[in-house]
Amino acid sequence: MPSRRDFLKTSMLAAGALAAPRFAAATAVPSKGALPGAEGARVISTWDFGVPANRAAWTVLARGGNALDAVEQGAQVPESDLANHSVGKGGYPDRDGHVTLDASIMDGDGRCGAVACLENIAHPIRVARRVMEATPHVLLVGDGALQFAREQGFHEENLLTPEAEKAWHEWLRSAKHRPVANSENADYHRSLRGGHDNHDTIGMLAVDAHGHLAGACTTSGMAWKMHGRVGDSPIIGAGLYVDGEVGGATSTGVGEEVIRNAGSFLVVELMRQGRSPQEACEEAVRRIVKKRPDGAKEMQVGFLALRRDGAVGAHAIQRGFTYAVCDATKQDGLFASPSVYATSFS
Ligand code: SD4
């Protein structure tokens, strides 16, 4: 894992290096089976914890495995990390003390599956894939999602770790129970993020050596959210969208703003119209900021995009959004996204 200083150094080069198509033949899309082994494969994901997640995904891509298996594998790394309070087991609970998880997975061919407000299952991304493959549906929520997971043989366990429970009790002491829509100040948004700013949703996008694309997104959502609240992460087109003809996009930050703008779908459609991944992410962020000129100063939303040729884009409202890039040349790349504002919640 690179140190923060290494990453900051690297990030000086990042925006230019990755915003521009990295692969020599940026517009030449590899045809199926044309590239041996891992050549041409790349996986990217949100935040610092994307580095170990990418490495897990890379174990699949490096042996010529497919992008869908890779992102499912990679997303499980932060889901298992108990020190990570925003994804999977160990995630901070809602205001009533329930850890409720949201996840989605999408293949470049348009197949997708998702779960929302799922309790007691440590790997919601695996359940999302099962929804995609074993049901005629796209999204299962709450008790129905849990019932399905049980039927599929998933193990049930308590996801509220002692550390997360302690943080919840501390929050309860000063908690103001009020709907998110009424609350637009920075302190409140910071509290929604559990006071941890470089720990957030993991969104992961991969292109495999056969030129096939897939994406995954998994989160425990905003800390101390209202019970039943669902963010952007399990909403196809909001927190995640992948189109094998174009590329994929994923988001992190205040999910309500991403849903309002169909954020990831927007990024992919902009790429389809010819914008670079970087330009597409910038435009999606711009739309959010334009609609919420005051609120945007105090909230974070970040988009990450991968074009089918491997070109990467990233943009965020606030400074501090990092993303990890892994390919045959470097497995642990970590970069800082450009942002609209220079402020950081970190
Ligand atoms: C959500 N985008 O549920 C996700 C994760 C999050 O601050 O809470 N980010 O809105």
From TrEMBL:
<dbReference type="Pfam" id="PF01112">
    <property type="entry name" value="Asparaginase_2"/>
</dbReference>
<dbReference type="InterPro" id="IPR000246">
    <property type="entry name" value="Peptidase_T2"/>
</dbReference>
<feature type="signal peptide">
    <location>
        <begin position="1"/>
        <end position="24"/>
    </location>
</feature>
<protein>
    <submittedName>
        <fullName>N(4)-(Beta-N-acetylglucosaminyl)-L-asparaginase</fullName>
    </submittedName>
</protein>
<dbReference type="InterPro" id="IPR029055">
    <property type="entry name" value="Ntn_hydrolases_N"/>
</dbReference>
<dbReference type="InterPro" id="IPR006311">
    <property type="entry name" value="TAT_signal"/>
</dbReference>
<keyword id="KW-0732">Signal</keyword>
